[in-house]
Design goal:
Helix content is 11%, strand content 44%. It is mostly beta strands and 133 residues long. It is globular, with a radius of gyration of 16 Å.
Length: 133
């Protein structure tokens, strides 16, 4: 018997009551403004395809301002841009690790031919933040 995928970090994979699942908001895609950043616990990372292009998608649980676990935000960050995708492959964050992602806006290539999205990624390991190069 196959189990259901992890739908929300507080609802275990497998058998669940629909009423229990409906108590939680589904993950939403992070659509940052320039300078915005998020920090939270990586729940899972998986390769997903859209429009024929594959990219790592990170599912991140962002803690609330207070202690109510129902106030956690559950977001997805799709590493489709070359900079963030490279950072994910370099740092290889894993489930349970604390990560931070910052969007620094659009940048122009050195030849001025095109623009790209500039992101920073950091992973907390053994109490220290490790950044992508």
């Amino acid at each position: 018997m196959r189990s259901m995928p992890l739908l929300h970090p507080y609802v275990p994979a497998g058998r669940f009551e629909l009423s229990e699942l409906l108590e939680y908001e589904p993950p939403v895609r992070w659509r940052p403004e320039e300078g915005e950043q998020i920090q939270g616990t990586l729940i899972k990372i998986e390769e997903r395809s859209a429009f024929g292009r594959s990219a790592p998608t990170m599912f991140i649980l962002i803690p609330p301002e207070d202690v109510d676990e129902h106030e956690h935000r559950y977001v997805t960050v799709r590493a489709s841009g070359i900079v963030l995708k490279g950072a994910v492959h370099e740092l290889e964050p894993g489930p349970g690790e604390e990560i931070a992602v910052k969007y620094e806006g659009q940048r122009t290539t050195t030849d001025g031919g095109r623009e790209y999205a500039m992101h920073r990624l950091a992973v907390k390991r053994r109490g220290r933040w490790v950044r992508s190069s």
